[in-house]
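yo, Ribose-5-phosphate isomerase is done. seq:
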Amino acid sequence: MKVYVAADHAGFELKNTLVEHLRALGYEAEDCGAASFDKDDDYPAIIAGAAKKLSEDVARNIESRAIVIGASGQGEAVVANRFKGVRCALYYGGAGEQRDVAGKTLDMITSTREHNNANALSLGARFLSVDEAKAVVKTWLEQPFSGEERHARRIKQIDELT
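structure:
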């Protein structure tokens, strides 16, 4: 599977590390920039490059993913979610064990795939160690979509909004 990876200056080093990590895991990682470190770069155009490629793959029914990286990951997720068919989830660190109101233990990173079929992941580089980022990316990429009717129905409704 192809994984598009993009980052601004705040995520530049982590991006380079993750591209190599993805390749070592057997993924076809495409570095979508930034091509060099520039402390004054602006993330929207950089992130849009990866999100646009993912959106085009979605339109052609090609399975791929995107990982976008910035300081907090917030703005990067906003940009990625502007593109049709892109469902970008945000991760900037574990919040410890989480439980829903029924007491069921939740794992937010796997639920982005199981429930929302997120095809893009935005990482907050200033909140993650390299090892945590590697582990989260591996978990996220390996987690399948549940395919449950209620989740598929909701994703279809989201996709019909654009």
